[in-house]
Design a protein that fits this description.
3 helices, 3-stranded antiparallel sheet
Length: about 120
């Protein structure tokens, strides 16, 4: 009898544990490709076919670094989805990323020493 009464508790614990996972999966970034550094990104509000490319909300630059940020929570609040195209130096390689979880913001960092990186959370 004890085992049967424990099943709902175990199921609930598993459900709660698994439901926490999408928050971690929401983060994404442009993949690093050895020998082919990231050159630029395009952040889309909705499908790529709509061609709604978002400009960064902020841009900061120093002699050796720059940073661009996008606040994207409003895209999800409006019922749309964020999509990103990562473009690499050789211009033959691109990565299309379609977000499946809600994100708050994205950042493109560029450094003369370490190259560029792009990530969303």
């Amino acid at each position: 009898m004890e085992i049967i009464s424990m099943r709902p508790k175990i199921f609930f614990a598993l459900f709660v544990g698994l439901s926490c996972q999408p928050a971690l999966a929401a983060d994404f970034s442009c993949p690093e490709i050895k020998g082919n550094p990231l050159a630029s990104v395009e952040v889309y509000d909705g499908p790529f076919s709509d061609n709604a490319i978002l400009a960064p909300d902020t841009f900061k630059e120093t002699k050796t670094n720059s940073s661009s940020t996008w606040g994207v929570a409003y895209v999800y609040e409006a019922g749309r989805q964020l999509n990103v195209i990562c473009r690499y130096r050789d211009q033959k390689k691109t990565e299309e990323i379609r977000s499946i979880s809600k994100l708050k913001g994205c950042e493109l960092k560029t450094s003369t020493k370490t190259g560029s990186s792009f990530a969303c959370k």
